[in-house]
Amino acid sequence: MNYEDLLKAYNQLEKENKQLKKQVMEFKNKYEIEIEKTNYQIKENEIELTRNSLVKSMKKTTNNGINLNVQPLLNKYSSSSKKVELYQSLFRGRNDSYAKRFVHSKTGKPGYAPAKLKPWDFESKEYAPLDSRVIEQHLRGEIVAGIFPICLDDTCYFLAIDLDEAEWQRDASILRELCTNHEVPIAIERSRSGNGAHIWFFFEEALPAKVARKMGTLLITAAMSLNHQIDFKSYDRLFPNQDTLPKGGFGNLIALPLQKKARIDGNSVFIDHNFQEFED
What we know:
This protein is of the alpha+beta class. The chain contains six helices and eight strands, in the order H-H-E-E-H-E-E-H-E-E-H-E-E-H. It has two domains: 3-69 and 153-264, no CATH class; 80-147, no CATH class. Strand 5 and strand 6 (196-208) form a beta hairpin.
């Protein structure tokens, strides 16, 4: 999904989303009825995301959003280097630094901090890069790594919607159906806690974080417009969480998926429409 495609989809969605909201309000006022909770089907003439907004390789999808035209290149028997290479091609962000999870020795509370080349030197500003070695350690369960989505030029390679709380499965299903009906590639990860989800969208090339975030906001608004009873209380935030990189800072981080220890508990894995983990 390149910049021109995303901008076109954004403008189209913004225009027709306004029309849809107006139609919903007019319908409510005229007939004074409620829209049933399950009525979030999308009409072809309502919110239109054109094929040009899709990742070019995504030509045809199933109802689960699975690409039927792409043959699997890797499996569980592939080499570690190939797996890491594929992983890094999707989860791209700031590569000159990454965040590492820790547990406070006194409080026992977990947190994240930028990883340093010299962790014993509290004054050091030499940060460790996010490289293949770190990714492999993360996947093997040796560390828990987080990625900073915003690059130094205020662009990003992915957007993630963070869902939490009791209704996260319902809201994730609505977003999945919205995106699948319009052939927008989507990947849903059950979070490390098991009580939420990250909705991932991957871009072919770096896009302005501001544009990606507006697209995410419009997707949530569009989903809510389909049913006025859906308030998306599970929605927590977008990643990237800022339009621009804070001066001298890193921006918000998001924990990378598929960490081994979390996977053992069935979490931090990608799930299908029945919330079951995809087979390797």
